Structures are given as C-alpha cells and as structure tokens.
Amino acid sequence: MNMNQICSENFFQEQIAKYNFAKSYCYGKTLEFSSNQFFAYHGAKILLENKCTTIIRYYLGNKKLFKRIIGDKSNIQLFKMEEDIDGLEKISFDSIISFETKPFGKKFKSTMQKYYEFLKDDGIVLISVLNKDVLS
Fold first, then answer.
1. Do 59 and 66 contact (CB within 8 A), yes or no?
2. CA distance 129 to 131
C-alpha cells in the first residue's frame, strides 16, 4: 500500500467514523495507543466534543506521550509529556482506545494486561484491528 492509498478520502472518512463511534463510549481521562500521527488533532477534537476531558496519546512508533486537553470548545492545548508510558499513573484512565492495531498474535494477553494496568475498574477499552487486506 502506498501513501496515496493511505491518505485517500476514504481513509479520512474512516477515521472520522471511528472517532465518532468512540466518542459515544469514551469519557473522562482517555489513553489512546496510536501507531500513526495522521489524525492526532482531529481525533482528539472529536473525542473532546463529548464526555472526554483529557486525551493522552501514546505513539507506539517513537514511544512518546502527548497530552491534549480542552481549554474551551475551540481551543485544544497540546503538551509533550516528559514521562514515558511506565511513568503514567496506574488505574487512572476511564477509557483506553487503540485504532488500526496490528494483530497481536502471541502478545495479545500481555498487551491486554498492559491496557488493564491503566484502566479504572469501571473503564472501557475500544480496539480496532487492521484487516488482512491492509496488512498484505
């Protein structure tokens, strides 16, 4: 798959649909695991339209954390966080999302355990997995 295929209009419409779906379920402090930065601002803006108050996005590629909070409905503030993923407070997130996740294979159990280390008891996890056509 080349960059033109990835950045097609359908790609952006699919991202909008995913975040609109997620905003119906996500709330409060939300941790997002992401393998790309294509939709970082717009995804946070959509999530913050509803019940989310803070989005912390962890980029799997470069292992960086970014925090997005809403100042008001038109002002999303971005902060690069100094800590890494292990520095985040455990059991502190209301929602965890991971879109476009590559299939976990044998790492499924350990990945889910990592998610649940951060999730509050009454929290929610939303995951979407790439399909076989995209991976080939």
1. yes
2. 6
Q: Give how far Cα 88 sits from Cα of 53, 76, 83, Å.
A: 17, 21, 7
Instruction: Give the C-alpha separation, 123 to 58, whole Å.
Output: 18
Output the six-digit token pair for 51.
């019940």
pTM beyond 0.90, yes or no: no
| Model pLDDT for residues 88-118, shown as the tens digit of each residue | 888 889 999 988 766 566 677 887 888 889 9
Name beta bridge partners: 125. Answer: 96
Tokens of 32: 């997002």
Radius of gyration (Cα) for the chain, nearest Å? 15
Q: Are 22 and 96 in contact (CB under 8 A)?
A: no
The distance of Cα 117 from the centroid of its chain, to the nearest Å, equals: 16
Residue-wise pLDDT tens digits, 17-65? 999 999 999 999 999 888 767 777 888 888 988 889 888 888 776 677 7
